Amino acid sequence: MRSGEIGDPGLAPGLLGGGSDEYLAGLRRRGSDQRPGVGRLLWHTIRTRERRPGRTGRLIRFVTFRKRVRKRLLAAHRKLREIRMIVKGVASNRHPLLAHIIPIRRCNLSCTYCNEFDDFSKPVPTEEMFRRIDRLGAMRTSIVTISGGEPLLHPDLDGIITRIRKNGIISGLITNGYLLTADRIERLNRAGLEYLQVSIDNVQPDEVSKKSLKVLDKKLELLAEHAEFQVNINSVLGSGVRNPEDALTVANRAIQFGFTSTVGILHDGSGQLAPLGEREREIFEQIMSLGKRSFTRVNRFQHNIAAGRENHWRCRAGSRYLYICEDGLVHYCSQQRGYPGIPLDEYTDEQRHREFRTKKGCAPRCTVSCVHQISVVDAWRGAQRLPPASSSSRSSLLGLTGSTTRD
Do the strands 98-101 and 143-146 form a parallel or antiparallel pair, or are they unpaired? Predict the structure, then answer.
């Protein structure tokens, strides 16, 4: 937050009573051209506070009330769109429900467990991203989530989000949160973002991950104050997590801010399960009982994963769920990159419908939550009896940094 914006501690004494004389004197010394960005009306109100007592407080209460009402209306609109997406998905299996799309593979962090980033890739050209989004729109895709890498590094991310919304698609974003500022959040609001997820791996940064609550707590405060979209905080459990209690601390902090909270279970480099220990399972159950309900909390499958048990389900990757890499190729998911490995603009309805009926050998031990959640919509539909089609060899992207990843 820039100094002088509403909510900045430096402005509070002059607005809330006490210290107003000193505050106004300081402003006069700086000159009118350096007054804080609070707007001409609010500036005039501050200057005439002694002649019109209470007006500042009423104005602040009105602005706060208006923001609260706007957030509630937007939340209701999101819920209606989510319900419509589910109804549309139940009514027909002929369109994708969720697509993850990668506008840039580069990341500003280098978490040792992650195999989904590099430190050199250039952003996908904006016009090419627009073509891919329009193609997903033509497929009648319900949700597009932007991931990476770190998507906030793309210079035209706002335009990409706006393009998603213009296609009538629900827009989501997954970020490490490091690049969030008050201004950046407001720009995401204006672009039309509807859902954002931040994954926080620990309370204190360590050699494995810098995505810690200590570093990101101020970013969560900014999101709570400025975001008009839904925010979900994802904590993690599993092998390689030094302090499993950190996940519960992160989840409780998310609830304090009014966000939704989910927990991911660490999987290996091919997206396969690594069962939790006894204490980790206890923490997992506590987190499952917290907070708000949302589609991201369709998580019954995770109870089996936590216990190390296989899930018997019908994975609809390649059909209802699509993963489009930075090269524009369609893959089953982030952990099965290379299959089917077909360019999005060449991916036909017939290929999608075949993948809907194709049994995936990796499914029983899969921990990729988003694919599980989307596939729930079609759990009651026909059995998968087709074998996987012959496809291009596995993409070298799987050889990126690290051996494990967290969804």
Answer: parallel
